[in-house]
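Format notes (please read before filing issues)

Several people have asked whether sequences and structure tokens are stored in separate files. They are not. Every record keeps both together, in the order shown below: the sequence lines, then the token lines. Line labels are part of the format and must not be stripped during preprocessing.
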Amino acid sequence: MKKSVTKAAAAVLAAVILITGAALGAKNTVIVSKAAENFTVEAKNAVLYSNDQTKVYEKPDLNSTVVTTIAKDLPVSVTGITSNGWFRISLKGTYYVPGYGLESRETAVSQGMTTISSTDIKKLTKGTFSFYKNPELSDFDEDDVEDMDENTYIKYLDSFLMGYAVIDDCILQDSGETLKTVYTRESKLDPQVAGMGMQAYLLNYRNNYFSKSMTGPFRTEKDLKLALNRAIRYDIEKFGSVYRNSSIGSSETKIKEFMENLIDEVKAEQGVSFTCKMEYGTYKDEDGNESKGWIIEFTKKD
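Then the structure lines:
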């Protein structure tokens, strides 16, 4: 059965790609306070981009739990600004990023509509193989898309962004509907969606899907290994994931041995190695439910 698009997901897709420094405050002028016992939040609706300092915290407090680390150059849905200088974000729940952890990007605007340059698309999709560069791409149906794993579906989305097929025909995996159907419906309800254009809408969708595919929680060695291979393919230097497995539990000895073996396997197969920092703690799933697992920050070695 297909998943319906939740209000949270719709808000992410409808977020504005274009944002100026004045709208949320330039990153070098945001003051971050360590204490967050009392704070207020001013609601916002925008998209900023991650940098090499984008750590996600449970609360707007440097002493609170680090939930994950977002890879550089990915869009992040901002839902507010706190009185102590943090961004409130939507990422499988409500979390916070220090003011210096997000930044705005210049995007071309023509006749009130957000557009994406070919240079941006090439940079974004540089890790995508031309697997779907064929005239039958638009013939894929809902069942074909539903059966795709994360790696395959990212290639599928990138193929439409790169112009290998008519963008209207792209099928969104969570709803099973075409991009044109979803965009047309959403643009009638939200002027921000109408203003961003169909390509920018798809770009937001793709980047949020990609970000979630790196976060987990992962429960098998195979899935975590695929995330590491994805980081190599798309040249991601640092990212955060959650791993939980009943055979490992909270044992530091077992997780250390598991990670050493996994990283060694990836290095032997891909010639690329990673370091990692691990902490057993609480995380929230996509529905906001709390669970325990290993919160891991991976960094690719030079």
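For reference, the curators noted about this record: The chain has three domains: 19-103, 109-213, 216-300. The radius of gyration is 19 Å.
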